[in-house]
Amino acid sequence: MVPEKIREEVERLRREIEYHNYRYYVLASPVITDEEYDKLMQRLIELEEKYPELRTPDSPTQRVGGQPIEGFETVEHSEPMLSLDNTYNEAEILNFHERVRKTVGDVEYVAELKIDGVSIALRYENGLLVRAITRGDGIKGDDVTANVKTVKSIPLRLPEPLTIEVRGEIFMPVSYFEEYNQQREEEGLTPFANPRNATAGTLHLLDPAEVAKRNLDSFMYYIVKPQQYGLKTQWEALEFLKKLHFKVNPHSKLCKSIEEVIEYWRNWSKERSKLEYWVDGVVVKVNDFAKQNELGWTAKSPRWAIAFKFPAQQARTKIIGITYQVGRTGVITPVAEFEPVELEGTIIKRASLHNFDYIKEKDIRIGDYVLIEKAGGIIPQVVHVVKDLRTGQEQPVTVPDECPVCGGPVGKESKEYVAYKCLNPHCPAKLKRHLEVFVSRQALDIQGLGPKIISKLVDAGLVKDIADIFYLTIFDLAQISGLGPKMIANILSEIERAKSVSLERLIVGLGIPGVGERTAKILARKFRSLEELANASIADLLLVEGIGEDTAKSIYDYFKLPKTKEIIEKLKKAGVNMKSNIEVKEDVLSGLTFCVTGTLKNFSREEIKRYIESLGGHYTDNVSRKTDYLIVGENPGSKLQKAQKFGVKTLTEDEFLQLVEERKKKKGEQQK
Ligand code: IVH
To answer: Where along the chain is Zn(2+) bound (predicted)?
Structure first.
């Protein structure tokens, strides 16, 4: 028998944790620290382990992923999940508007961003998520509930006990997609062509614990039978979805005219690369549901909505050569060098060809004309070869028989890997790439040591491993061409400052295979020092939530290497911090969310972020309604207008510092 008190505690913990999930993942505005959150979760896990009968499918503990499954059940959709007709230019969208007007007269539209993800239907019964179904063929889809439960912005339980089906998009954020693809390339796996494929692949993994690690996110935009909930328009539906704690895209716009829609589309064609997710157009929807019904559907798509795609960002150019990049783990990536060509405002000179299988698959040769595209408006990629333009003079691309950097042997680590690697453990290219990571913003944040300087330091034999950075002297740096006395002084002071790096950043800098920022953060929270982490057994590592078998083994192996031991010893001797200092120093800004625009006098972006976080505040890159203050520096950007639109308070840098002082004083008085 479970005591009533425990039952109540479990229920309370679940409500609290789900609320904090919502604050963090949907609103991006947490009200407690990560440690406090961990404590709640730990307690819930403990109670569920002790009283397994209390485990329910909507428990937040399920978000880390349950047992692996055998396959996916096919489920019929409650109403077909159809797609949209596409339009590509302003004339076509005006045609659509004319057709709408002929049937229902003048209308308002809702313009939404068309998220490049995977569509999903979510069924809730009495407020509980019971099924998540992919689109499939539109009539039947796959039941991917166990995987979708790991998507933190999707509520497992609604704030009201509603029975409802909502639809929207699941996607992989760009930053995570890039990190994930890089990881794949380093592991010798074929990278995903775009976040949509990565999302679809992830949603079909058989192990939900793996899915949980991939940071999928969501936006919901559709309610099945919305009239049942008293909703009359799409705009109301979006508001209703927000009230139910779904994540709704903040950029949707209610437009009074088709001209406003076109303006929205023009603006986002330019601005889309600034988003954290990929969008491939605008979805234009008639706002009024009664009018939507009047317009009805064709067999394929609704007549009340249309996708207004962004212009295809493509160009044609010639491959004039192939160069090779050698990565941190020695993976050799072939890169196509182009005759420079303009694409959406930038000059493109090269694009990664990922690996030699990719080249074979697309039959890419030197001298070929190729069509290139900016995937998601950002990363240049070869779409296909224009074979009609071949002259017969084109040369095939071959795997280099020696490392293009050090001349070392080249090979595959195992047959399943598509990647070729430089097998020389002392290849300077590997060290250079590793040093670039080591000094990057995410790691030790040492300004002034760009790739060129790093390359010279390695070539001069002044830096033979990452720890050597801390032993550089003024005389060493003076040998490097292009460094003046002022720059040298700056670099040395940056290096000095970097010694007080946080443990999590130091871990990122070590470049342990499979350990990125997220994992580093988890590790720094669980282990109080680098020594403690270095001494952890595989079993200890597996006990840490969010660390899977591969990562545990990779961490363990890394710390067992004699070279690692040497590096850590050297870092320690140099006085580099190795202790966890994740705790908040002073809790004076807790509950407040800040954003920054323009250049500040006293802080870099990274510094102000750390400063705010060290005072218990929350820092975000983008302004939203949830932002409490926007700190405005010199030459502010568009965030300022956004803040004004949302009624977010603004502060100058001095006013911000004053606010901190006042709060510190107040806190001091309270404690007296
Ligand atoms: S509405 C019946 N809104 O685009 C209308 N779709 O080609 C349902 N999509 O399958 C679609 N963002 O996966 C709608 N804001 C948005 C969307 C969106 C992305 C996807 C969706 C759909 C496809 C249509």
So the answer is: 403, 406, 422, 427
